[in-house]
Amino acid sequence: xxxxxxxxxxxxxRQELESRVKAMYHDVAESPQGDFHFEMGRALAERxxxxxxxxxxxPAAAIESFAGVGHFLDLAAIQPGETxxxxxxxxxxxxxxxxxxxxxxxxxxxxxxxxxxRDKATRLAREAGFGQVTFHDGYIEAPPFxxxxxxxxxxxxxxxxxxxxxxxxxxxxxxxxxxxxxxxxDIVTESALPESVSCNATLWAxxxxxxxxxxxxxxxxEAAGLVIETWREHPEYRFLTDSAQxxxxxxxxxxxxxxxxxx
Length: 263
What we know:
By secondary structure, this protein is of the alpha/beta class. It has 13 helices and 8 strands. Strands 1, 2, 3, 4, 5, 6, 7 and 8 form an 8-stranded mixed β-sheet that branches. Helix 8 links the parallel strand 2 and strand 3. Helix 2 runs parallel beside helix 8 and helix 9 packs parallel to helix 12. The longest helix has 17 residues.
């Protein structure tokens, strides 16, 4: 993803934010055992609801760098032969699980701005024989794919990092075919964040500072022409550091997943 909105729209220095996000997710790919604001790995994935049997079928190295915030693949209901776009695909865990559902006749397009993540995901997919999966350099506000070319858009814990969320949802709607689905997990808030949090690039990179108030988040999706059919919370997701936990408790920062359909 990238930070394309002007500074005045968010109050955060978008260049500093992009630098911090890239640095953090480089470390997620290269040093998944490091200290982060958030949990990572298989134990988190299973607690969020991922099927252990499916996880057993993809490379463990993709799972160890998993830094998602919820589970949504059941909502996506990916079918054999479909084309899936993964916004902010990271080291590829969700993309590879989507490929299990599409089968060899389908296609999974991972999109990520961090080179270390793309490189790791590409290597793992190739070594594991997932020929239907490709990973692309780009930004979630400007996916380099044709109009109405995708059956399902997925994303996990990434859209909150964007300074232009309406653009992300508009682009998701653009690439989706009629009847296509947007299935994602993300971080939202119960009350709007103050500038002391929303202008903090460190808390943005930690998936908190950029979190949108939940009613505004829903409105941005609907303004893009998508109809929300399912919305659920993930109380089992938690932040690790004191600063992240404080913001979470004060402003109702929480994990959700949803399914929206393009009519």
